[in-house]
């Protein structure tokens, strides 16, 4: 390779790279193009025939082909591919769409964010998607925001901020006067959430005696506190409050509610026994007594039926095993259970339906509906018939019900009663329109035909003839009625 001395000095003293200035545009694409031209210019000084004699060095001064050069070259290639993809995506947008440099890209960030000695972080690097630590100082929050956590809010300002849902500490209100003023401001706002928040603060920072004494003359706040204590289930503090206020009936009811937390039946029964002597109203005292008596009966019935079921000697328990325990069930559920499993038992037993009816003074209407549902579920139609059959003093029988027979028909149909049973009770419905609707709905054809015959309504009978099956007994019956000369039709 022949090279003049002047060319060598010009090569080693010249550079294609410009020094950093604040006016330069940090355009990596232009830098890459300039670097490419610089590399291509080297080929003018290098003779292809003398490649073996020339030792090539990289821009860092290391021989090309060395281990350190290979490592850096590999890293550089992976990085350059990523930079080219970024450049392509950036070039698809106009320069005006780039966000304006904010304080995050300040002068200090260029001098502090060096990637390696002698190089600076470019604007494109700062705008890249790769997460990097920002060295620029953050802008301070407005002074107004720091006041949210300050202690210079008055009670009225504090309540207003609480109403808006902003963070506001109540700890600065230390004296009783300040706390009460805060409570009065909350009440004046008529916002239940704010009142409850202040009451929680007072409950935590005041003794029970002082809190109860001050709330006694503030009925709005008192009602909120009572409701809050009921919601969170703080029965102890609620009892103390009622005792302080001398509200004996509410105290008794609150004490009675504690039985819900007792799972053991025997312990619950003993607790209910202690509630009987509490100062309830006359009506509530009767309910407490019935609750205790019912649970006492349920415990006895449950123990006896569990033994019969496990022994397997009772037919009803073999055909219809129990699906759940009867303990803690309502009175109507207990009556249904008794009508289902113990319908024929004597009145003297605790599990007898008649005994339950008399003990708890169950109305006839409720008793009949419950017994009908239980016996119809077992398809005991003889018991259903006996439930509505009565005798007069002359010995004549007649069907009567304390409820409308239309309800009886609906219960029977719900339990898949035969058509013959349904027709018998549909005929007992007094209202003609209701009778026809039920008979048509449940396909009691004989009832519909006989009703139209009694009404002497030929048109309706002809219309109903088209609804029955051809050649059926119902069609023949309708034809016989239509051809009868003894009926004087209305139309």
From TrEMBL:
Record-linked Gene3D superfamilies: Vps16, C-terminal region
Keyword line: Cytoplasmic vesicle, Endosome
Vps16 C-terminal domain location: 175-275
InterPro entries assigned to the protein according to its UniProt record, in alphabetical order: Spe-39, Vps16_C, Vps16_C_sf
Any one GO CC term of the record: late endosome
Disordered, as annotated region: 71-93, 121-149
GO aspect biological process, one term: intracellular protein transport
Range of residues in the leader sequence: none
Source superkingdom: Eukaryota
UniProt-listed Pfam families: Vps16_C
Compositionally biased residues, Polar residues: 71-80
Subcellular location: Cytoplasmic vesicle; Early endosome; Late endosome
Primary localization class, coarse: cytoplasm
Basic and acidic residues bias: start-end ranges: 140-149
Record flagged with keyword Phosphoprotein: no
Protein name as annotated: Spermatogenesis-defective protein 39 homolog
